[in-house]
Amino acid sequence: MSSRSAHFVEHTVSVAAPASAVFGLLTDAPRWPLFLPSYMHVERMEFDGVEEHLWVWELVAGRVRSTRVRRVLRPEDRSVDYEEFAAGETSWPGAVASGTWSVAPEDTARSSLTLRCESSTRTPGELDTDVLLRLDGLRRIAEQWDAFDELLLSFQDTTRIDGPPELVYDFLYRVQDWADLLPHIDAAEVCEERPGVQIAVLETCAAHTGLSVTAQTVRLCFPAAGRIVYKETLPVDLVAAHTGEWSIEPGVSGVTLISTHQVLLRPQAVADVLGPDARLVDARHYVREWFGRDGRAALSLAKWRAESQLSRLR
């Protein structure tokens, strides 16, 4: 991107992780919502092993902003060039930013991470703050690289529904009605700032403790694809990040509804939540049972409602 009014920022941080591990995080953009707080969802549209095109949704100042991103991965020198373009935002026309991520080894256990960024739509102060936040976020997660096998958790539950996908999707989309339908949800408020982009605040009752928990979630709805992806922006203490997806897969007759979760655990909270003798394996089981129980309740209700409505229509 080139502009006479563009601002340029470059910062470097030292990371207590090997350069290969840091570069691996840079190239794994679809998992950035688990690693960086502002990222809500990343969809990889095209990828040939070197160049990729992404749709990125970020939460900025309380609003969900979408951008198209073109990235070129250069593993030979551990760098990633990128360009960002606004997607459907009249206040962010055209190219909005470009830059380069690069990683250099300091020794076998440490590396330097640099982000160079140029933008004509942000003030120098905003750009400087943004670059520092992104660097710090990746530094913090990269320094846990050797514990990822224990910290990262992915699972799904499914149910078969004898009904049309439209009825199933309608139940998933109308999350504001869930307080009247699901026993673990006490209240639900939804703000849809533009079609398909929901910010939901749910008051839930954790069945295993009886305590009330406030969950704020950004939901991105794709009706043509039968998908709703989401990220919790106020995760519970034991969880550093939680993303998920509801997806509807049509079959020969009826559909399969799938509830998928990706979780990044917060290891420093394990002892406080589960007791001084608890380990990460206990936290993994605890979270799987909790989120799975709530998800299966929603799956069961979606099945009952769709099949009940269909029987009335026949």
From TrEMBL:
InterPro entries: COQ10_START, Polyketide_cyclase/dehydratase, START-like_dom_sf. Pfam families: Polyketide_cyc, Polyketide_cyc2. Residues 162-254 form the Coenzyme Q-binding protein COQ10 START domain. Gene3D superfamilies: 3.30.530.20. It comes from the Bacteria. This is Coenzyme Q-binding protein COQ10 START domain-containing protein. It comes from Streptomyces mesophilus. The lineage of its organism: Bacteria, Bacillati, Actinomycetota, Actinomycetes, Kitasatosporales.
